[in-house]
Amino acid sequence: MKATGIVRRIDDLGRVVIPKEIRRNLRIREGDPLEIFVDREGSVILKKYSPIGELANFAREYADAINDATGRSVLISDRDSIIAVSGAPKKDFLGKSIGRLVENAMEERRAYVNNYDADGSREMSIIADDKGEDNYRFSGEVICPIISQGDPIGTVIICDKKGNLPQLGDVERKVAQAAAGVLARQMEQ
């Protein structure tokens, strides 16, 4: 564990405040669920809870099925990072933080279909590197939020890095929406 040098007291209701700097660095927002663990040495460990992370194996299989059917790369994310990859190098995407484009899709709770010019220029990307700067570029992507019990818990992303297939459109949007619906229903069961 990394020491922060920050000390907080527990109040009379058993609450402790997580400092703003730590919340910002770990992307913990108001209302985010946290898991609480206790190790053998008596340390209390707080970990961000990812409800869709419990479905990682199912999400991986679903991403493979979409990739097989469409020939497109498929990424599935929770609220913070990519949890399943198919049709793209896993080392480049799996576990990477999501970029502003994906965050926007979840906040606005709507599907996006983006296709780009040959130069691939745009302001936002779906993946952010460790420095928080968007690094990966696709020739197009469909991003659909996964909404469970009224809250966005992740996204289904269908993308084409090579640009060798026709532009993404309504068919890919509907496939992503169907996948997001199935994953949301799995969470609610």
Protein described:
There is one protein chain. The protein has 189 residues and is of the alpha+beta class. Helix content is 28%, strand content 25%. It contains five helices and nine strands, in the order αββαββαβαββββα. It has helices at 20-25, 56-70, 90-93, 100-108, 170-188; strands at 34-38, 44-48, 73-77, 82-86, 97-98, 112-115, 127-128, 140-148, 151-160. The strands form three sheets. It has a five-stranded antiparallel β-sheet, with helices on both faces. A two-stranded antiparallel sheet has the order 1-2. It has a two-stranded antiparallel ribbon with strand order 5-7. A hairpin with a 2-residue loop joins strand 8 (140-148) and strand 9 (151-160). It is elongated and about 60 Å long. 30% of the residues are buried.
Radius of gyration, in angstroms, nearest whole number = 18 Å
Sheet-strand content, in percent, reads: 15-25%
Roughly how much helix do the residues carry, as a percent range? 25-40%
Give the count of helical stretches: 5
Keywords:
5 helices, five-stranded antiparallel beta sheet, two-stranded antiparallel ribbon, elongated, alpha+beta, 189 residues
Helix-strand layout with pairing:
Elements: H1 20-25, E1 34-38, E2 44-48, H2 56-70, E3 73-77, E4 82-86, H3 90-93, E5 97-98, H4 100-108, E6 112-115, E7 127-128, E8 140-148, E9 151-160, H5 170-188
Antiparallel strand pairs: 1-2, 3-4, 3-9, 5-7, 6-8, 8-9
Helix pairs in contact: 2-5
